[in-house]
Every structure is written in C-alpha cells, then in structure tokens.
C-alpha cells in the first residue's frame, strides 16, 4: 500500500495484492490498535471470577510492576518472593481478557527491546527471513509476547519451541496465550495441558495462569451476527464510503482471493479500511478456506473494522461438521468476533 491510496471510497479486497517484507513484519510486532493503550489499570477483573484478579496481580509482578503485598509486622521478616519462571502462559476461554493482559505486560515492562505478535506472525517471519536470522533478530530481546499460540501444526509448534528455547537461554522473558471454548463443560477446557505437552522441551519455563470467565464480546450484544437486506447493505456501504475507505466484495470472491495471499499479509490486505462489506455470505465447506477466513477475521478484529454483510449470518459460516472437528476452538473464537464486528 502507498501514500497515494484514497482516503474515501469503495475498494475490492479481491483486487489487492499486498507485499510484506521481513522488515515490515518486524515493525508490526506491537500490540494491535485496540490494545495500544491497554494497561493493568484498565483491565476490569470480574468479581465473579477471582482468577482474573489473581492473574492480574501475578502479571503485574512479572512485568516489573507492583502487586498487592501482604502487610508486614514491625519486626517480621518479609517472606521471600519465589523466583519467577521466565515465561507465563495465560490459559482460558476466549473473551476473558487474555490479550488485554498480554498487551498490559508489553506496555508495563520497562524493556528496551520487546515484541508483541500473534503466533502466525512469528512463524511467518521465520518463513520470510529464515530460522537463524530470526534467532539473531530476537537474541537479546527483553520480552516476547505471543498471542493465540497455535498447536495445530506440529512443524510450526516445533519451530517456535526451538526458537523460544534459544531465546530463554539468553535471558528473554516470554508471555503467551491461547484459546479454549468458554463454559464448555470440560470439553477442551484446560488448554494448558495441550500447550505444555506440545512444547514439552519448554514446559518447565512457563508458569500457567488460569483465567476463568465469560466472553465479554457477548455480554452486550445479541447472540447472532447482524444480516442486512440488499438495500440496507447498499445504504450502509455508501454512507461509510463517504467518510472512509470501504471494501465491497462478494463473499465467494474474497474466499478465493484469500487463498492467493499469505495469512501474514492479511493485515496489509485490510490496511486503511473503515468498514468491510461482504455480499452473499454462504456456509463454508472447505476446511482450508475456513481456516484462512478465521485468520482474516482475526486481523479484522485486531484492527476493529466493522463488518456489513448480506446472505447467511456470518456466525453460521462454519458448518456443524467443522464445529465438531479438531479446529472447533478456532471457529468458536471467530464466531464470537464476527458477531461483535457486525454489531460495531
């Protein structure tokens, strides 16, 4: 994208072909816009779930801040603070504030060199510049924050585990999150078990913090994505295009186009947009296409770009067979975000 891009009007995402260099990827390793000002002070722990406040207190200490201390008597020796592990893993359902807390660590830690990115951004960087160059790039960094750590691809997991092991050995602190379905009655509830098993070579380096709660995105919105009639869609897109850059694509065309763009470039695909428009949404039947759409929605959600759509409700694009499969957690997270973006 260049500085000559329009400031208003309608564009087609299916006509965009973004390019991202290794330097661009590194420069983007900061919290997304919605968390650019995230702090421990602005994290509102739910009193109904004490684990949220407990995690907040622990992470404040991890980041070098101050957490509530027990009162000490006049002659009482202060208890020794146990030595912290170099990594913390935030385990919990989606929508309980894990990314907010992760960004709070990033902002609070008085570090000279620190990075914040999704798992896919780090693995894409390795793919772009090579493993050894990535190690040299991060060597000596004070902090690496990894949001939405993925365990689906054994190869990517192994690469990240090896990378993190080399960095911890040189003093880098780590903070990571992943997602589990909220209130899932035991189904996939303790992602920490999966996480520690898959990164067994690094598991001793992580302290696991469980964060319970309900998805905050669904506390204030209805349970379904908003669907517009054709005339309502036209009005919404036209109104948004008068004051910003809006995309307007047939859903099928966007899905096909996503297959031609590496997921690490999706953030550039939506760069500069104020609204994303999708016509004639249909239920996805191809798992690879569905996973690419999940990655696309993750980036749209990070950028907080509203969605306007016609056709099938966006919270129904992943069929029952997909929701019953191995990527259920990803699809449920995407559904939560799709609902929120259509209400924004």
Automatic annotation (TrEMBL):
Keyword Oxidoreductase: no
GO terms under cellular component: cytoplasm
InterPro entries reported in the protein's UniProt record: ATPase_AFG1-like (IPR005654), P-loop_NTPase (IPR027417)
Keywords: ATP-binding, Cell cycle, Cell division, Nucleotide-binding
Pfam families: AFG1_ATPase
GO terms assigned for molecular function: ATP binding; ATP hydrolysis activity
Source species, domain of life: Bacteria
SUPFAM superfamilies: P-loop containing nucleoside triphosphate hydrolases
GO biological process: cell division
NCBIfam families listed in its UniProt record: ZapE
Protein's name in the database: Cell division protein ZapE
Source species: Microbacterium caowuchunii
Lineage: Bacteria, Bacillati, Actinomycetota, Actinomycetes, Micrococcales
């Amino acid at each position: 994208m260049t500085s000559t891009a329009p400031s208003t009007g309608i564009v087609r995402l299916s006509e965009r072909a973004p390019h991202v260099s290794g330097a661009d990827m590194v420069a983007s390793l900061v919290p997304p816009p919605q968390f650019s000002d995230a702090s421990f002070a602005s994290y509102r722990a739910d009193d109904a779930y004490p684990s949220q406040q407990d995690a907040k207190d622990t992470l404040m200490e991890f980041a070098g801040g101050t957490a509530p201390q027990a009162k000490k008597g006049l002659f009482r020796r202060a208890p020794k603070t146990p030595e912290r592990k170099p990594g913390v893993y935030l385990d919990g359902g989606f929508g309980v504030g894990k990314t907010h807390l992760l960004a709070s660590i990033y902002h609070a830690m008085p570090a000279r060199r620190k990075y914040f990115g999704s798992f896919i951004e780090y693995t894409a960087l390795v793919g772009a510049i090579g493993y050894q160059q990535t190690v040299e790039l991060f060597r000596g960094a004070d902090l690496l924050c990894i949001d939405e750590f993925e365990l689906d691809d054994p190869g990517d997991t192994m690469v990240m585990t090896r990378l993190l092991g080399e960095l911890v050995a040189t003093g880098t602190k780590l903070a990571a999150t992943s997602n589990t379905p909220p209130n899932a009655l035991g189904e996939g509830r303790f992602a920490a078990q999966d996480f520690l098993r898959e990164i067994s070579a690094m598991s001793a380096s992580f302290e696991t913090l469980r964060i319970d709660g309900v998805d905050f995105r669904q506390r204030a919105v209805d349970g379904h994505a908003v669907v517009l009639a054709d005339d309502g869609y036209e009005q919404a897109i036209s109104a948004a295009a008068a004051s910003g850059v809006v995309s307007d694509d047939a859903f099928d065309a966007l899905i096909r186009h996503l297959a031609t763009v590496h997921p690490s470039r999706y953030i550039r695909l939506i760069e500069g947009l104020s609204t994303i428009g999708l016509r004639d949404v249909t239920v996805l039947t191809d798992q690879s296409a569905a996973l690419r759409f999940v990655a696309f929605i993750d980036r749209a959600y990070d950028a907080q770009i509203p969605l306007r759509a016609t056709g099938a409700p966006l919270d129904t694009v992943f069929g029952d067979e997909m929701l019953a499969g191995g990527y259920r957690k990803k699809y449920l997270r995407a559904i939560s975000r799709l609902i929120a973006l259509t209400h924004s």
